[in-house]
Design brief:
The complex is a heterodimer of chains A (255) and B (424). Chain A has 255 residues and is an all-beta fold. In chain A, 0% of the residues lie in helices and 47% in strands. Chain A has strands at 11-15, 40-43, 68-72, 91-102, 105-115, 118-129, 132-144, 153-162, 169-183, 190-200, 204-205, 228-236, 243-253. Chain A is elongated. Chain B contains one helix and 32 strands. Chain B has one helix at residues 2-22, and strands spanning 43-48, 56-59, 63-67, 70-74, 78-82, 90-94, 97-101, 107-110, 116-124, 130-137, 148-156, 161-166, 173-179, 183-185, 188-196, 203-210, 213-223, 225-233, 237-245, 254-261, 272-280, 286-295, 298-307, 310-319, 326-332, 336-341, 347-354, 361-369, 372-380, 388-393, 396-404, 413-421. Chain B is globular, with a radius of gyration of 21 Å. Classes of the chains: A mainly beta (255), B mainly beta (424).
Chain lengths: 255, 424
């Protein structure tokens, strides 16, 4: 399962002044949120609805519950006891943490699929400049489901850091993934069978920033007087460094 | 592969009849033991955690250890139920028990500190006493979002808590389920925790108790840690298993790797030496639920590989300072493996794999025979989730986990012990 070479994204960079456009690879995470619902939902249950332990992606019905037969408050009515034969194994899978730079922002997200009736994910994005940590931000999301819901669930959280520039920053992210069982028998909620682990993203980098022009007056940066600064789009292979394509975007300054 | 499993199961079924006829299984079933004559092949005992007064107990399956002749289950949370036929059981207490002894003298051990415990990790000290690290969390914390409030170490002498002392605190965020076992390392006790200080990546903090005092330190140059585990053996010393970002690899890759403590007196900056890279996470693969043990033949590590394309559990055995060991795939379509150290120095595994019916899965007991992974036993799992294992004699492994209530006495869940024979 080694990484196919063609999967390596080509790094697009602006040479000299690489502070331009960063292709947007934002994911639509908002519609995948599963907010906490503190009411018990006891669905109509059919053994045929049980899903495979392997939890293939196609089996997952994200954000979907079976039609609720009733809504109960803890203590209002005796909740249905779990049936060992009716519950698939709780677990966490497809756990990942990833991030991407957008123009003037960084978005990090962590997600996992789980079985169990509660799951939680937390993601923290870490921002660095010149190797020095300059900030971080955390987001989390939690899912609550019926005891007898036979489906696998999905929970995703994101964290967005607004940026003032589009160059010179690096970032990575850390996700915390957890799932557990929680029920409310007559005497209050019970939590058990908790599992958890963390994941970390890869490293994301903005293009390097251009040298800062010092303006006229013969400042020794080689950019004053008749010198021109050209902005060049450069595409090269991340592994080999081979330049695949380049073009001048525009030049400024000079006589 | 499936053919050999089927054959093995058939053989095992025949053996079960023989075992029943001669009463194989050592001690007679203890209180709470299922008297069912139809135990699956190679299962010599199936016992619920039932006290002498008929009440039932659940203790989270964080550790099962042997203390003398007793088998002790330790963990948090815990629940104590009084069965109530025809209705929901009465909950007598929750989170008041930190451990319970299985067997004929089944009894519970109350927690020695008043707060809510998010984790309890225990280790035997001698034939009667055991010690435990207890991670206290804010009682208003949501499960899965624990806020650290305290860390305690206690010693239980078989009848009472003989010692309870505060440990130095963890820093920043914690994950109560991501910490190592508590291990006896010669005359020291050692424990490793996952912590994420504010604004920093997750790292490992090592705790050592020596001469009656605790010392702790963050392991330098290890960050973006996803998992930590410790193991010790007299011959090999203290070893640490780390999962997460690997600064020794090009790019930004993650791995599962082993370190060894040079000496307890080494400078902290130089205390851990890299031993072996157990596996490197391929793109899109997360390494999770790893465990390891040290035996005379080297270290054995087991782990789950989780990806969008499926899951599998693998192991590497025979890892030494000069030997990378050998990798085996234990099961596909499984993310659930537990490793046990048999007294003869060999490893054994219990894995949960997808069963024949949707929503049901099987537990398989695996051994290495002649360089091949063999299925010793396979039967439908009574656990709806994870479990823990422990070798208790040269030919037996116990598996402990939760059993959900499916009978008429109203107990939602309780701890269940399975005793498996490895020589059936």
């Amino acid at each position: 399962m080694s990484l196919p070479r063609r999967f390596v994204p080509l790094l697009s960079a602006f040479l000299v002044a690489g502070c331009g456009h960063e292709p947007s690879t934002a994911v639509a995470v908002a519609e995948m949120h599963e907010g906490a619902d503190l009411q018990f939902v006891i669905p109509a249950f059919s053994p045929e609805l049980l899903m495979d332990h392997r939890g293939n992606v196609s089996d997952v019905r994200e954000g979907f519950e079976t039609a609720p037969a009733s809504l109960l408050r803890p203590g209002e009515e005796e909740p249905e006891r779990p049936d060992a034969t009716a519950l698939a194994a709780p677990t966490i899978w497809d756990a990942s943490t990833d991030l991407t730079f957008h123009p003037k922002s960084l978005e990090a997200w962590a997600e996992h699929k789980y079985r169990g009736n509660k799951g939680r994910v937390e993601v923290t994005a870490f921002m660095r400049e010149g190797g020095v940590a300059i900030g971080n931000r955390t987001g989390f999301e939690e899912g609550w489901h019926s005891w007898l819901s036979p489906f696998a669930h999905h929970v995703i959280a994101n964290s967005i850091i607004n940026l003032e520039k589009d160059c010179g920053l690096t970032a990575d992210a850390q996700g915390k993934h957890e799932a557990w069982w929680e029920i409310a028998p007559g005497s209050g909620p019970s939590v058990f069978g908790k599992v958890g682990f963390s994941t970390t993203s890869g490293l994301a980098s903005q293009p390097a920033c251009p040298p800062t022009p010092t303006g006229g007056g013969g400042g020794g940066d080689g950019m004053s007087g008749d010198a021109a600064m050209c902005y060049i789009w450069l595409e090269y292979d991340l592994d080999s460094g081979e330049i695949l394509d380049w073009q001048v975007i525009y030049c400024s300054g000079g006589g | 592969m499936s053919g050999s499993i089927t054959a093995s199961v058939r053989r095992a079924s025949l053996m079960a009849v023989a075992l029943a006829a001669v009463g194989c299984g050592g001690d007679p079933p203890a209180a709470g033991a299922s008297a069912s004559p139809s135990l699956p092949a190679c299962m010599v005992e199936r016992s619920r955690l039932v006290l002498g007064d008929g009440t039932e107990v659940y203790v989270e399956y964080q550790d099962v250890i042997q203390v003398g002749d007793d088998l002790l289950l330790a963990g948090s949370p815990s629940y104590h139920w009084k069965p109530a036929p025809g209705r929901s059981a009465d909950l007598l207490s929750s989170d008041e028990i930190v451990a319970a002894y299985f067997g004929r003298g089944a009894r519970t051990v109350p927690k020695p500190v008043p707060g809510r415990l998010g984790s309890v990790r225990a280790a035997a000290l001698d034939d009667r006493s055991w010690g435990a690290v207890m991670l206290e969390v804010d009682p208003d914390s949501l499960p899965g979002q624990e806020l650290f409030t305290g860390l305690w170490y206690g010693e239980y002498d078989g009848a009472r808590w003989s010692r309870v002392e505060a440990m130095p605190p963890l820093r920043g965020e914690i994950m109560s389920r991501v910490s190592s076992a508590l291990v006896r390392a010669g005359d020291r006790m050692a424990w490793a925790a996952w912590e994420s200080p504010p604004g920093e990546h997750a790292r490992v903090r090592i705790y050592e108790r020596s001469g009656g005092a605790w010392v702790d330190y963050a392991v330098p140059e290890l960050d973006r840690v996803e998992l930590v585990e410790l193991a010790y053996s007299e011959g090999s010393g203290l070893w640490m298993l780390i999962s997460g970002y690997d600064a020794g690899l090009p790019g930004f890759q993650k791995s599962l790797r082993l370190y060894r403590e040079r000496s307890p007196t080494s400078a902290i900056a130089d205390r851990w030496e890299f031993v072996s890279r157990v596996t490197i996470a391929e793109q899109g693969v997360n390494l999770a639920f790893a465990s390891f043990l040290l035996q005379p033949g080297g270290a054995a590590v087991s782990w789950a590989e989780l990806s969008r394309f499926g899951t599998r559990v693998r192991t590497r055995v025979g890892i030494g300072l000069e030997s990378p060991g050998t990798v085996y795939t234990l099961a596909d379509d499984s993310d659930n493996v537990r490793l046990a150290a048999m007294p003869d120095g060999s490893p054994a595994w219990v894995v949960a794999v997808g069963g024949a019916e949707p929503g049901v899965f099987d537990l398989q007991l695996l051994r290495l025979e002649g360089g091949t992974v063999k299925v010793v036993a396979s039967f439908p799992s009574p656990f709806p989730m994870y479990f823990t294992v422990r070798a208790v004699d040269p030919h037996e492994i116990v598996v402990v986990g939760p059993e959900l209530g499916s009978d008429s006495i109203g107990v939602p869940f309780r701890s269940l012990l399975l005793r498996l024979s490895t020589s059936c």
